[in-house]
Amino acid sequence: MQVNNGPESLVESGHALLVFRTRFRGGSNGVVALARMEANAAWSADDRALARAVEAQLGVILAQFTQQRRLETLSRTDPLTGLLNRRAFIEEVDRQLARDSREGHSGALFYVDLDNFKPINDRLGHAAGDEALIKVAAALKGNARRYDLVARIGGDEFALWLSHADQATALRRAQALSENIAALVPPNAGDLPSLGASIGVACWTPAQVEPAELLLARADRAMYIAKNEGKQRIFADEPVPAASGSAA
Hints:
Elements: E1 8-12, E2 15-24, E3 27-36, H1 45-76, H2 86-103, E4 107-115, H3 118-124, H4 126-142, E5 149-154, E6 157-163, H5 167-182, E7 196-204, H6 212-228, E8 234-237
Parallel strand pairs: 7-8
Antiparallel strand pairs: 1-2, 2-3, 4-6, 4-7, 5-6
Helix pairs in contact: 3-4
């Protein structure tokens, strides 16, 4: 739909529309469409004058809303990878746990720590390190479904929440992720040790009473076990016991 400078009358799907642009700081920043149910309903000169009168006010409101959304996005995402940051990840996993608990779905949380990342930064520079982190983020997103959650926790540490996943499914996904990350060879790597990941897996069931922060800590401990066993390994922690009185 193309809208010129003034309010325009259109008929769309049996509705009479009055369409006009919103204005902010001398430019257009949106479009508003008013609808009447009857296709032959007329828009008067007063209607058009009112639309012109509110163009600027609506433009300011839309600009403020857009800015607020932008700030919210910045506060919740990692600026390099675009993934959720730690705080937003914890909030979103807690929401998923509440829903999955009601619906009876299990899940798993991965804590991913990169192996041999420091030599990339030290030998190839921070730009190469950033490129590697971006590729790892893409590998994580490639192993996630639309309702999974992916985050950069900090530095070279990442997290992935899998909803509707038991331990067997989680371990298969962790193995695939490990192989994807190991295949990310940075340009001009030379004799650098290959990039890899130590992955800790914490499984969760609806019978548990465990907030996301504790689940993440459990996955973190599992990751350190994997790393201490020789790096580029996967270790799955056991679910915590159900709280007293919870359903088995």
